[in-house]
Amino acid sequence: MPRIELKGITKRFGEIVAVKDVNLTIEDKEYVTLLGPSGCGKTTLVKIISGIWEPTEGEILIDGKRMNEVPVEDRDLGYVFQNIALFPHMTVLSNATYAPIVKDFPVEERDKIAQEVLDLVDLLDRKKFFPGELSTGTQQKAGLARALASQAKLLILDEPMSALDARVRVDLRYELRRLVKDLGLTAVHVTHDQEEASSVSDRIVVMRAGRIVEIDSPENLYNNPKSIFTANFVGEMNFLQGAINKLRDYWAIIELRNQEYLTLSNRDFRMGAAIILAMRPENLRVEELRGTRLGNAIPGRIESIRFMGSYLRYEVLLASDDHVFVDSFTGEEFKEGEQVAVSFDETNILTFPAPREGLSEVIKLE
Amino acid sequence: MNLGRRALNFVSGRSVSKAWYAFIILFFLLIVLLPTLYVMSYAFTGWDDIQTQVFGNKKTTNLYWEKNNDQDFVGYEVHFSTTSGFAPNSSTLVLTIDTKGGDVSLEKARSSTFTMVSGIPAGDRYYARIRVVDSSGLWTDSNQLSDNMDAQYTSPEPVELLSLWVQGDNVTVNWTVSEDDDFDSYEVYASNDSQFVPGSATLVDTITNHTENSTVVTVALNEVHYFRVRVVEDSGLWTGSNLKGIGVGVDDPVDDSSPAPMVLTRSFSREVLSQITGALTLSFVVAIIATLIDLAVGLPIAWVLVRKEFRGKSYVNTLIDMPLAIPTAAMGFSAALFWGITPGIDKPWGAISFTNSAFVLLLLLQIVFSFPYMVRSLAAILEEIDINYEVAARACGASRLTAARTVTLPLFRSGIVTGAILCLAKTLSETGGVMAALSTIQSREYNATALIGTMKSASLFNDALVPALAFVSIVLIVLSIILLIIVKIIVTRVKLPMRKVWTNLEKKLSKGAFPKLKDAGAFFFLTFVVLIPAFFIFGFVATAEPSQTADWGAFWSSLGLSFAIAGVVTTIVLLLGIPMGILIARSRKKKAAGILDVLVNIPFIVPTAALGFSLGLFWTTQPFLPVTADVFLIIMAHVAFTYPFVVRNVVGALESLDTTYEDTARTLGAKPLQVFKRVMFPMMKASVLAGAIMTFTRSLGETGATLAVSPKAITAPVYIVELIRTGSYYQAGLASILLIMVSFIIVLVMRRLTTRGGA
Amino acid sequence: MPRIPSIRLEGLSKRFDGIVAADDISLEVKDGEYIVILGPTGAGKTTLLKMIAGLTPPDSGKIFVDGERVDNLPPEDRGMVYLSQTYALFRHMTVWDNTKFGPTVKDWDESKCDMLAREMLNLVRLYDRRTARPDELSGGMKQRNALARALATDVKILLLDEPLRALDARLRIELRYELARLTSDLGITALHVTHDQEIAMTMADKVAVLRKGRIEQLDRPEEIYDNPARPFICHFVGEANFFEGTVHSVSEDHSELEGEEYVLRARPTDLPRGSEACVGIKTENVRLLDGVVEGQNHIPAKVVRRLFLGRLVSIVIETDGGKMLHVKMPSSIGVKFRKGMEVTAHLEPSKCIIFPIPEKGLKEELEVE
Prior knowledge:
The complex is a heterotrimer. Chain A is α+β, with helices and mostly antiparallel strands.
C-alpha cells in the first residue's frame, strides 16, 4: 500500500536547482496534485517519485523503504504521460497487455487484465485500433488503461490532460477521479491548471521555483490561501492595496487610494501597515449607487460586461483607481459606463501583509 | 517601389520560379543522374556491339585469348586480313605485344591477353588471328575470328600437336581431338622449314574421322621434318595447330616445338573473368560482414551517445566524426600499416601487423571507414524517438533491455535501414583506401572498386579493358541496388519476438556488470578497431626512418588540384543542391517530390568507381559535345556523388523546420526570395554547412571516381596511392598526414567562417 | 483614423486526400469585429485560417477583403498577418529584429521601421527585452513578441491560430484580456481559432462553431450559449445533460418530451407530436433541491460525486432510473451537497432546449472530438 515520503529532496541539473529541499508525505489512497506554473519543479519532483531520476539530495521512502536507487521498472507504478506515448506499433489491446507481459504475469491472466482495464475506460470496442487511428482523448484513455494494467497501486499522472482539447479535459477529469477512487489507488497528478487540480484532488501541493508554497485541500486553497501567490494562482483574484488607517480592538479601517475606505475586523493588524486585500470576483456584488453608502461599498464605473455562460463578468473601475472583476450569477441589469457601487462582504476578504518585493512580483505567473 | 523591390517581385513571379525549378530538375536529371547510370545502357546493347564499335569511318574491336604459358614466350602478334582463310600473303601484322625492349616485364606481357585494335576501315570485314612467338622464332596461330560472329567466318578451335615418334622413315603424329561441330577433316602438313613459309609445306595426310587423332607418315631420311595439323571445317575454314619438328635419321635429334595453340574469343578470358568475379565477391562479402559488425557495435555506442549524459561526450562525438573528414586513401594506408604485414619494411612501432590476407585487411579497413556513418545515422534516428516510449515501457515494469527490445527497436527500424544502407553503400564504394591498403600489403587480390581503379589505369595502355570495366561497373551497380533493396525488405519485414519476454534473464542483463561490459566493449572497439588504426599513421611517421627522396613539388601541386576541384565541386553542389532540397521538401506535389527524392539518392548508392567510369564514358562519347578534359570530368564525377549529401541535408533540415516559419514570414509581407534569405536559410544553415563540409572532404579524399574517369589526373589521394604502390611508405605517410591536417584546417575554417555571420 | 477592413468568405471548400477540411464555408466579418472560430481538434479550423491567409489554396470559393477579391494574391499582399500557435518567432533573430521583420521586408524607411518596432514592443511591454533571443523568453513573452511582430506590419487583419494554447492555464486567463484589449484599441479585425469555449465566450464579438469543416452556427456568444443550433453546440459550449424521447405535446409556450422515466417540459418547438426528439439542459441550469420535492420537471436523485472547481462545484447525481446528470453551481451553494445525499434536480423548462434527434444518433452527435 503505497505511502510516499519525501525527505529533503533536492535535484540539481548542473548549476540549476530544479527542486529544493522538498518534504512531502502522500498517504495511501490519497489523490495528490502538484500544481504550479511552468518551471516550478513539479515535473522534476514527479520524476523523482517515479524513479526516472534520482534526487541529488534527500531521501524518498515508499512504505518506509528507501527507494532512491530503485529504478522506475522496479517501483511498481502506473505512469500516464503528457504526450500520451502509447506504443505506436502496437494496438490498444497490445498496449494494455504490455505490462502484464513484461511483469511476467501468468499467461492466462494477461489478456483478462487487459480486457478489464480496457473495460474500465470504456475502450473495449477500440481494442484493435492502433494509437494513430484514435483521437487524442481516446488515446489518453488507452494510456490510462496501459498504466492500470500493471496492477500497481500507485498511479503517476504527468500532465495527462495537456495534449487534449479543453472540452475533452472536462470529461476526462470525472473519469480520472472516479477510477482512482473506485480502484483505491494512490495518485500523484501534475498540472498547471488549477481547475483541473481542484476537481480531481484530495490535496494540492502548490509549487513555485522549486519549492512547495502550500499544501492543502482544494477548498481551503481556494477559500483560505496562506500566500498571495496561491491566492492568485488558484482561481482568479482581485487585489487591492491599502494601509491600516484606524485600529481598534475589534475592527480596523483600511485606507485605499483616493480616500476610499473599507472596514474589516481586526486581524492583528499594525497601525499604518501596508496590506493587500484579496477577494474573489464571485464574492463581490455590483449594486445600484444610492445616495448614501451602506457598509463596505466603493463606488465605481462599469468598464465592460462579458457574458461568461452561467454568469456575467463586470469589470469595474473603482473610485480607488483599482480595476476589479465582479462575477454575477444572478443576472442583474447594469450597463456599460453605468455608475455603480461594488459591495464587499467582510468575511470573504483575505488580507496579507504587503510583500517587500511588490505585489506584481509575488503573483508573477512565469 | 524601388528597383530592389521590383527585382524581388520579378524573381518571385511564378513563371520565373517555375523556370528556375525546371532548370534545377533538368540539371539533375541530365548532368547528374543520366551520366551516373549511363553505363547501364551497355547492359541493353548486344555484346558484339560493345566489342566492336564504329566511330565515323573507322572501327575498333576487342580481342581476348588465353594466357600462353610457353617457357620461351616472347610475345603475341595480332594479324589482320581482309580475306577469310588468311590466303598466303594477305595478312598484315597490326600489333605486337611483347616486353617492348624491356619496358614491360615478361610476365606482364604474357598476361596481356586482350587488346583493342582500332583504325579498321568501317566498311571492311576483318579477319584476325593471334600469333604467339617464342624465343627461337617459332610461332603458333590461333583460330580466325571476324567482326561477324557467324560460325562461317570463325575457324574451328585449334588442336594441339602432342608428339612425334620416329620409327625408321615413319613418323607417328599425335594430336588432340577436335570438338568442332562442322568438322570436316584433319590435314597433316609437313615441311622442312620451321617457319612453314608459303609453298614449303605439303599436305601429307587427310583424315576425315575426327576421333582418329594420329597417323603415320613416311618421310625422307636424314632430314628435319616439321609438322602442323589443321582442323578443317565444312566451309573450308581451317585452324592450324602448333608446330613440332623432328630429325629423321639424323644424329642430332631436333626437338623443336612452337607454343601451344590458343583460342581467340570475344568474351573475357578466364583470367579477366575470374578476376572480376573474385573482386565482386570480395566486395560484397566484406561489405555485408562489415555492416553487420558496424550494426552490432554501433547500436550500443549510438545508444550511449543519445540516451546518456557523461563527461566528455562532446569529445567522443567529435572523435567518431573525425574519420569522416580524413581522406580515405590516407586512412586506408594508416589502417593497413597497423593491421597488415607490410613487405619490405620492418614492423612499425606499435603496429599489430598480423595479416596479409586481403579479405581480413579489407574487412578491418571498411569497418574504420563505415563505422562513423553507422553511428551517426543510428544516433540521428534514435534522437527522434521519444524517450517517453522507453520510460513508459519501464514504468510498466519492463527492464531496460526488454524496453529497448520490444519498444525502441521496433520503432527504430528506419534507423537501422538507413544505417545499413549507408554502410553498405560506403563500403561498396570505397576505392582509395582499399587501393592504398592493398598496395601496402602488396596484395594481388582486388575488390571490385579497386579493380575498376586498377583496370582504368591499365586501360590507358590497353583499351580492351573498357568492356571489362563496363561489365564490372554494371554488375556493381545492379548488385548494390539489389542488395540495398533486400536490406530494406529484411529489416522492415522481419518480426522481432514481441510477446515473448524473458523477464528474469533480461532483468539480470539490464543490471550490474553486463551493461557496463557491453558499453566498455563498444568503446574498446571504437578505440582500438576504429580510431587507433585510423590515426596510426601519425605514429608511423614519427617512428619510421625518414627518407629524403620525395618529390614534394608534385605532392603540393596534386594537393592544389584537389583543393581547386573540391572548391568548385562544393560551390556547384551548393548552388544546385539547395534549390533541389527545397523543391523536394516543400513541393505541394508530394508524389513527384517523393520520386525526385528517390532519384537524388541513386548516385549515393552507386559505388563511386562505377559512377566515375560511367560518367567518363558518358561525357567522352555523348554526341553533342564530347568533352575529354580531365579536370572537367573529375569535377562532374564529384558533383554527381556529392550532390545527394547537400540535397539530403537540406531536405532533412527543412522537414524538421516547421513550415509556419515560412508561412508567418510570408504573411508578414516577405516575398519568397526574402523568406529564403532571411528565414529559411539562416535556420537551416547548420545542416547546409554540414553538407558542404561533407561534400568538400569527400571530394578531397575521393580516389575511386577520380581514377575511374581519368587515370591521368593526379589528385592528392591518387598521388598517395601512387607513392604507396612504388613502396615510398614514409613519403606516403607524410603526405597522408599533410592531407589530413589540411582537411581538418579547412573544415575548421569553413565552420568558423559560416558561424560567425549568424551567431 | 484608417479604415478597418472587413472580410467575406464565399463557399470555401477544401479536401485533403478525400477528407473534408472545409465544406462550403461562407462567413462575413465586419470591420473591427473579433470573431472566434470554435471547434474541436480536426474540425478544419487551421485550414480555414490558412486559406484566408493564402497559405493553403482552397479547392473552390472566394475571399474578399473590403469587397475586393484577394484569393489570387500571394499571402504577402493580402494585408493580413497569420499568427501560429507555436508563434514561429525566428530563432536566429532578437526580439527587436523579429519585431522589425515585417517593416524591413516591406522596405519601408529605416526610421519608420524603428519607430514601429519600438512602439509595438512598448505596447506589449517587451521593449526592455529587445536584445533577447526567442529561446530566452518565457511562453507569455514569446506570445507577446509574436503579437508585436504582427502588429508592426501595420496590417489591420489578424489571423490568430490558437494563440493561447501553449500557455499555462492561469496565464491564459490573464493574456486573453490583454489580447482582446490590444486588438480593440488598435482597431483590428481579428479571426481567432480555438478549441476552448471559455476563450470563445470571453473574447468574441461573434462565435463561429466549426465542426467537420462546416460552420454550424455563427452568432453572439450569448446566443450560442442560450440558443444553440444543435445538440452538439449545446454540449460543446459549456456542458449539458440530454434526455431522449418523443414529443408528447406542443403548445405556444412549451413542449413536452416523453422519455422512459419522465415527461419533461421544455421550450416550444416546431416538431410534430410523436416525433423523436431530445432535450438538452446546461449543467449550470440544473438546480438542486434538498430532499425529495415533487413538482414539474423535478427529478429525484442521489449525489454520487462532487468535484470542486474553485468558483464552481460540479456535482454528479444519479437518478432513480440510473441516469447520471451533471450539475454545476457556485461553490457557496454547492458545498452543502454531499455524497449520498437525496436531492431533487429541477430542470427549469425555459432552459430545456428541445432538438430533433440528430441523423446519426445522439451519441455520435455529442462526441466532442
